[in-house]
Each structure stands twice: as structure tokens, then as C-alpha cells.
């Protein structure tokens, strides 16, 4: 009986550790709660990847540290899927003529890096309005994910007031990854590979 209780207690502690949620912020910080900066948390999540890395962002520019970490991950043999908004597909909502393709141009010849977009013709919602690819997250394998308001931009990672969470729960992270994997299937026609 004691062995069973000890085993159950160990399993409970493991489950609690795996379900941990951390907070990431950009902009002003306070002494109220311990928090970590968005940029350092993003780097940690990218470095944690062992097999796959899924990165989704509306805007992407000026994040040289993140670009270097993505390249390092790809060079370790990690499959990287980048889902970005494009200037054309956004219907003019993304400001400027450049989009994430320009930011990640140094990754364009790496065989393990794949660029995706939400198909423009699949963006009309039930209300008849055009949708925007507005999700922002980084998922390392199926074990950790950073979700929040910050785009992959220098200002979002340093200057803006942004908030995010890092989820260390394989069940929850797995559902996010599975959702995007289903959107990437050819028969779904939701996300398509984007030429560089």
C-alpha cells in the first residue's frame, strides 16, 4: 500500500511539473510578480525543440536573434514550419510591402524550413468578413508552447506592452500542433506552402 501511495504521489508531482504555466512580458515590468521577458522565453522555447518547431506570427521583422535561433534549430535537424501573414494575403491589413519572407530570407534555402500562409481564398468567415492570420505562438515539439499577444517583431519583444504564457503541458501543446498539422494537409486547403 505504501509503495502504491508513493508511486501515486510521484506521478502527481510529475503531472503538476508537466502542466506548469509561466508568464512572459514585454514593456514595463513591476516587482509585483516574477516574470521573464518575451524575447528570452521565445529563445528558450526554440532551443527546447528536439524534432519539430512550429512558429506562427502575424507580423515578422527585425527579430535577428529569433532568426538565428531558428537557423540553429534547423541546423540541428529540426523541422521548422513558419506560418506567417503576407502583405498580399492580408488584403492590405499588414502595413508595408514587406512581410515575414523578407525577415526569414536567410532561411529560404534550408531544406528543413517550410514557409506557410493561410490561403487568401479560404479566409471568408461565416459572417462574410475576411479573416486575418492573427495567431502568435511558438511550439517546441509537443511539449512546450509560448502563446501571447507579441508578434515576431523587435518592438513586440522589447518595447510594446505584451503578455504571453508558456505552457508545459504535452496534451494542450499537442492539440495546438495537431490543429495546425490538420490545416496544413493538402485536402484541408487552409494553409499552403508559400514561395520565398
List the helices and strands and how they pair.
Blueprint: H1 2-18, E1 20-26, E2 36-37, H2 38-48, E3 52-57, E4 60-61, H3 64-75, E5 79-84, H4 100-103, E6 113-118, E7 137-140, E8 144-148, E9 152-153, H5 154-158, E10 162-168, H6 170-184, E11 191-193
Parallel strand pairs: 1-2, 3-5, 4-9, 5-6
Antiparallel strand pairs: 1-10, 3-7, 6-11, 7-8, 8-10
Here the CATH topology equals: Endonuclease, Chain A
Assigned CATH superfamily: Endonuclease Chain A
Count of all domains: 1
Low-confidence stretches: 12-18
Strand % is 25-35%
Radius of gyration, in Å, reads: 18 Å
Spatial strand order of the main sheet: 2-1-10-8-7-3-5-6-11
SS class: alpha/beta
Total helical elements: 6
CATH uppermost class? Alpha Beta
- Record field, number of beta strands: 11
Mean pLDDT: 84
Q: What kind of sheet is the major sheet? A: 9 strands, mixed
Order of helices and strands: HEEHEEHEHEEEEHEHE
CATH architecture title: 2-Layer Sandwich
- Amount of helix: 25-40%
Q: Could you say which overall geometry the principal axes of the C-alpha atoms support? A: globular
End-to-end separation: 61 Å
Could you characterize what this model shows?
With 196 residues, the protein is α/β, with parallel strands linked by helices. It has a single domain (20-193), classed as Endonuclease Chain A (Endonuclease, Chain A, 2-Layer Sandwich). 33% of the residues lie in helices and 26% in strands. It has helices spanning 2-18, 38-48, 64-75, 100-103, 154-158, 170-184; strands spanning 20-26, 36-37, 52-57, 60-61, 79-84, 113-118, 137-140, 144-148, 152-153, 162-168, 191-193. The strands form two sheets. It has a nine-stranded mixed sheet, sandwiched between helices. Strands 4-9 form a two-stranded parallel ribbon. A hairpin with a 3-residue loop joins strand 7 (137-140) and strand 8 (144-148). Helix 2 (38-48) packs parallel to helix 3. The longest helix has 17 residues, at 2-18.
